[in-house]
């Protein structure tokens, strides 16, 4: 289903994306979903091929309402997806471990996205654009710095697009839940925060000494600043 078919461009809510469990943690507005997609670095693509479910972790990039993924043209995942089979893509950001007084109440703080759709292979200008979007998703400014793909490299690479028309976000935040009878237990409870933060860049040992670290890597953080919705 397309957003225009629903007549509402901002909500990606459909029958399939309505949260049944803990619906109060759900969001379907495009901005929330886009912000999670822009902060995370990789996704998991689930699909069924010949009755067998596969869930494959891979990188991606977002351009407006399109998600691009790429891989070797010989990859089984890319081959089967480009035939136009339905997929379910998930993206997760871990924000913290939620340590409760009771084992039962342990949880995680997170922001996650689930997208449903059909991935399609792209070619020509859009293929190059998809590769740029994926590269820039890793590090903004990288496409202009790196050598562009050769014709041979392009041939060996498949790029797929998935329209972000049907999706949901789920967000858990805050302290652990505590049952009344557990409140006085002498057990530490709270949240151990987690975040996606880069370490210090490590130069390739083969790098000529005159090649300096680019500013966009020295100041790298996620999300990488403002993105076009
Ligand atoms: C890091 C992490 C840890 C988690 N740990 C647990 C756990 O230990 N136990 C547990 O039961 N659940 C856990 N969850 C939540 C889990 O992802 C499911 O939301 C939950 O299990 C309910 O699944 P369901 O199929 O019954 O959801 P339903 O509510 O029936 O799903 C209906 C629709 O809601 C949307 N939806 C559901 N879950 C998500 C999601 N996570 N992100 C975006 N959209 C979603 C989808 O569109 C889906 O089709 C965790 C989630 C994350 C991200």
Set out the fold topology.
Layout: H1 3-6, E1 26-27, H2 30-39, E2 42-49, E3 52-59, E4 61-63, E5 66-72, H3 76-81, E6 86-99, E7 107-118, E8 120-121, H4 124-138, H5 142-145, H6 151-155, E9 157-163, E10 166-172, E11 190-193, H7 215-218
Antiparallel strand pairs: 1-10, 2-3, 2-6, 4-5, 5-9, 6-7, 6-11, 7-10, 8-9
Question: Concise description?
Answer:
The protein has 229 residues and is of the alpha+beta class.
Q: What features would you describe in this structure?
A:
By secondary structure, the protein is of the alpha+beta class. It has one domain: Roll (Pnp Oxidase, Chain A). It has 7 helices and 11 strands. It has helices at residues 3-6, 30-39, 76-81, 124-138, 142-145, 151-155, 215-218; strands spanning 26-27, 42-49, 52-59, 61-63, 66-72, 86-99, 107-118, 120-121, 157-163, 166-172, 190-193. Strands 1, 2, 3, 6, 7, 10 and 11 form a 7-stranded antiparallel sheet that branches. It is globular. The two termini are 20 Å apart. The structure holds flavin-adenine dinucleotide (FAD). Residues 16-17, 19-21, 92, 94, 108, 110, 112-114, 168-170 line the site of flavin-adenine dinucleotide. Flavin-adenine dinucleotide is lined by residues 16-17, 19-21, 92, 94, 108, 110, 112-114, 168-170.
């Amino acid at each position: 289903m397309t957003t225009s078919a629903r007549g509402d461009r901002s909500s990606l809510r459909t029958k399939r994306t309505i949260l049944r469990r803990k619906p109060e943690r759900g969001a379907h507005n495009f901005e929330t979903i886009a912000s999670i997609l822009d902060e995370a670095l990789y996704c998991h693509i689930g699909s069924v091929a010949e009755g067998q479910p596969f869930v494959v972790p891979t990188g991606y990039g977002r351009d407006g309402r399109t998600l691009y993924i790429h891989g070797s043209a010989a990859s089984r995942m890319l081959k089967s997806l480009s035939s136009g089979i339905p997929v379910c893509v998930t993206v997760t950001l871990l924000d913290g471990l939620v340590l409760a007084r009771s084992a039962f109440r342990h949880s995680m703080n997170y922001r996650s996205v689930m997208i449903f759709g059909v991935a399609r292979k792209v070619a020509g200008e859009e293929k190059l654009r998809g590769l740029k979007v994926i590269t820039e998703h890793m590090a903004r400014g990288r496409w202009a710095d790196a050598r562009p793909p050769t014709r041979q490299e392009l041939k060996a690479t498949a790029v797929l697009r998935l329209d972000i028309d049907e999706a949901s976000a789920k967000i858990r935040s805050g302290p652990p839940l505590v049952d009344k009878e557990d409140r006085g237990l002498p057990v530490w409870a709270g949240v151990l925060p987690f975040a996606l933060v880069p370490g210090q860049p490590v130069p390739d040992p083969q790098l000529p000494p005159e090649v300096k670290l680019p500013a966009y890597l020295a100041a790298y953080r996620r999300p990488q600043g403002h993105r076009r919705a």
